[in-house]
Backbone:
């Protein structure tokens, strides 16, 4: 097996070994996005940066180090068909950390890990002991989240549905979904369904967006049929193909627009409906939530744009404050996220 070192990272990204080294030493001349990409690849290949020891007898003040844990399996994380939001989150994290003279260490955590004693977590345990605080990307299993919050200051960069005892910085799900539904309603849509899928770890953000969908539909006095809700209780859980088959069936039954809980779901749905002979947006409109770049074979969907970079920066600043005041009141910060119409929304068809 080849050595895991900085040269491997440099070759993967097509940048110099010196640039990689400067990323790990918080050199001021490094672009935050470049630094974030370097940290991403380091997490993918399992590279751990260790400071060189010096023989100098003069003691240097220890530099603050923040851990960043991304809860996802490696296969999902390495997907190239969709833009990875964590890249922009990490750009905001590293930019804020650099401005405050702190280092960042990034690691992937398998969603199946439920305990700090799990081998999947123990591999980073020694590094974890030098972290002053921890940032979490994506939802984490409840038991692991509870344990992490007792051993160090923690800030989550997504609202964790099952734990209200940690600080969170996230998008305002209600405002984002509300704007999407308003856009569709103004275009004439009255039969609007909700589409999501199942995940290894309970997707708190998906439930938040579903709750926002239900509230906005009630406020606008638009009827909601349980048959037009896909993969949310009490509807039964379906796999990806079954979900799209069912969405196509409900579209033929009168649904004229779908609110998807995430952009990657929306792009999958657009592809699936088109392959089943249902044109988007002529026959049905589809919206997403995230604001990621569209895949090469898809048009830009109508979507709510999350300020990922700002979430990363603000979450890091909140972690710094939490470290200074370990047992202060918990804060949940929600940022505005505008809806941007794309090529997948239009008026309902005339039937």
Residues:
């Amino acid at each position: 097996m080849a050595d895991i070192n900085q040269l491997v990272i440099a070759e993967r990204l097509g940048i110099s070994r010196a640039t990689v080294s400067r990323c790990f030493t918080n050199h001021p001349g490094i672009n935050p996005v470049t630094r974030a990409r370097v940290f991403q690849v380091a997490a993918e290949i399992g590279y751990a940066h260790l400071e060189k020891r010096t023989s100098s007898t003069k003691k240097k003040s220890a530099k603050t180090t923040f851990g960043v844990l991304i809860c996802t399996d490696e296969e999902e994380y390495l997907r190239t068909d969709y833009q990875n939001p964590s890249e922009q989150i990490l750009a905001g994290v590293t930019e804020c950390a650099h401005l405050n003279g702190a280092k960042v260490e990034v690691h992937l955590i398998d969603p199946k890990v439920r305990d700090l004693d799990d081998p999947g977590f123990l591999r980073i345990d020694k590094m974890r002991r030098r972290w002053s605080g921890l940032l979490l990307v994506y939802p984490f299993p409840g038991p692991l989240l509870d344990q992490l919050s007792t051993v160090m200051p923690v800030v989550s960069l997504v609202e964790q549905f099952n734990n209200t005892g940690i600080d969170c910085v996230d998008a305002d799900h209600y405002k984002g979904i509300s704007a999407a539904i308003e856009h569709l309603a103004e275009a004439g849509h009255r039969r609007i369904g909700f589409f999501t899928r199942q995940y290894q770890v309970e997707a708190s953000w998906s439930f938040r967006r579903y709750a926002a969908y239900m509230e906005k539909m009630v406020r606008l006095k638009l009827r909601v049929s349980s048959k037009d809700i896909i993969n949310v209780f009490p509807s039964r859980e379906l796999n990806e193909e079954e979900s799209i088959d069912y969405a196509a069936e409900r579209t033929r039954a009168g649904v004229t627009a779908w609110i998807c809980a995430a952009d990657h779901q929306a792009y999958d749905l657009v592809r699936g409906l088109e392959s089943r002979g249902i044109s988007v947006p002529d026959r049905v409109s589809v919206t997403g939530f995230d604001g990621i770049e569209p895949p090469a074979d898809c048009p830009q969907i109508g979507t709510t744009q999350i300020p990922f970079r700002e979430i990363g920066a603000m979450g890091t600043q909140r972690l710094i404050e939490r470290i200074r005041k370990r047992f202060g009141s918990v804060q949940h910060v929600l940022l505005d996220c505008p809806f941007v119409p794309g090529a997948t929304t239009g008026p309902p068809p005339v039937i």
Observations:
- The chain is about 40% helix and 15% strand.
- The first strand starts at residue 65 and ends at 71.
- Residues 51-61 have pLDDT under 50 and may be disordered.
- Residues 173-306 form a domain with the Rossmann fold fold (CATH 3.40.50.2300).
